[in-house]
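User: Hey, quick favor. My workstation is busy. Could you predict this chain's structure for me?
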Amino acid sequence: MAGDRRRPPRAARRTRARPTLALALTLTLLAPIALALLGCQPGQIGEELHADAEATRADAASAAADSLAPDGGAHPPGADAGSASDAQGPSPDAHVDNGAPATLCAPIAGASYASLSTAVKSDRPAAVHGDLNLMLRKQRAVGETQGLVDVGGPTDPAQPPQLYSLFGDQRVPAFSAVYQVEAWDWGCNCPKGWITSPPVTLAGMATTPGEILHAPKSSYDIGNGHTALVLYATEHTITIKYTREDNVVSGYTVHIDNICVEPSLLALYRALDAAGRGTLPALDPQQPMGRARGAEIHVAIRDTGAWMDPRVRKDWWQGK
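Assistant: No problem, here it is.
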């Protein structure tokens, strides 16, 4: 019948469907062969795609973490291009060894050390005390003057610690870098934010690796001609105090990092610390206390707990 739209016979319909079924069967049979030629195992392609996706997510997470400041907040706009940049901050007692040869940290010939009783004991172990262990605080480099600065204001009528006497030749060293130190939150007993006044609270001073470093001289006599107590020491950092108290509340405190503390001085400190800190090592003015372990030492100075600017000529570099 003209215009008849009857479907073709069932046999004809089956005949047209067979090529599609045959193609599917052929692809199913050939797929393992193709994978073998490509060096893949069944399911490997999917796994690799999944791995790629995971890697992409990990990269994104890493980038987000890199955008955080050391205290967990986002870097302010332009922070990386400004005058300050975050520096590496070691964990307590975990000073990274930069491979200094053992000869740089050799004992100092003739070195011997006395001890003095402490007037007031620390309220917590020195290694975890934010005022005694400088390594608990990070430092960041700042774009301030790398050299001595002249400022106004009163001067201690007695002689405060003179930082040039760290060095045997009494020199004003080249300042290789200047830094700010983290502030401390005593509520959480953890670092929080940065000390920005004064603008510099830690100075990098150029040294000759292995040169002997001395206790900075002052006019203070804390007993038997000694000028300072060792409040904290490890192989590579030392904190000394110009009074008999086992804290930084009164008097001057000097932190020095990236040095080799003289081995017998370190041994004495550790023994007295373990014995309860009723006595601690005592240093004479300009007494050798260690060696420079590299091309730079880090020096900070404090007055009654406050962080001072170690570059100030009238206080710490008198006559220079």
